[in-house]
Amino acid sequence: MKRILVIDDEPDILNLMRRMLEKHGYRVSCAENGKIGLQHIDHEPYDLVITDMQMPGVDGMAIIHHLSKRAPDTRIIAISGGIKLYGADNLDRAEEAGAEAILAKPFTTKEFVATVAGVLESTPPPQPPPPPQQRGD
After folding, report:
1. Is residue 126 part of a domain?
2. CA 104, 47, 27, 54 torsion: positive or negative?
3. Around Cβ 133, how many Cβ atoms within 10 Å?
4. Are 4 and 21 a contacting pair, CB within 8 Å?
5. pLDDT at residue 90 above 90?
6. pLDDT at 82
7. Where 4-aspartylphosphate occurs along the chain (predicted)?
8. How far out from the chain centre does Cα 90 lie?
9. Which DSSP string do the residues of 77-89 spell out, in sequence order?
């Protein structure tokens, strides 16, 4: 059973995503903000992390950067409801930073579940090679 962490500071959205995912057979953990999300990431392995981009304190970009260092094999979906206020820039930046899919709120159950399934069933993108080691002379 695939393990998913959902991070969102809006309790109603968080619970809705949890219920949708559990209904489709996923094991789901939730974090109501980015700080708690980082704690989950540091203590448990996840197949997928779904993170809101617009959160106070630790935002979605910080989550993506943390995952790239601590759990580079974890798949990422970035979501945001701030498209009208902030444009699509934050979702575009999320993709550039490593999110495999993006979703703008509001999204339908069908869109959400299809995106999750698509990411989990796809072949992960290749990881970039580590930077060469510097030799001291």
Report:
1. no
2. negative
3. 6
4. yes
5. no
6. 61
7. 52
8. 13
9. EEEES-HHHHTTH
Under 8 Å between Cβ of 115 and 99 = no
End-to-end CA distance of the chain: give it in Å, rounded: 50
Q: What amino acid occupies position 22?
A: E
- Residue found under tokens 């790239």: 68
Q: What is the pTM of this model?
A: 0.86
Strand order in the sheet with 48-52: 27-31, 3-7, 48-52, 75-80, 101-104
Q: What's the number of domains the chain is made of?
A: 1
Give the single-character DSSP code of 133.
P
Query: Residue 135 domain-assigned?
Result: no
Residue 75 lies in a domain: yes
Q: What is the pLDDT of residue 89?
A: 67
- Cα(100)–Cα(44) distance, rounded to whole angstroms? 20
Amino acid at 116: V
CB count within 10 Å of CB 32 equals 16
Is 22 part of a structural domain of the chain?
yes
**Average confidence score pLDDT of the chain:** 88
Distances 7 to 30, 104, 126 between C-alpha atoms, Å: 6, 15, 25
CATH number for position 26: 3.40.50.2300
DSSP string of 105-131, one letter each residue: SS--HHHHHHHHHHHHHSPPPPPPPPP
Phi, psi of 4 (to 5 degrees): -125, 135
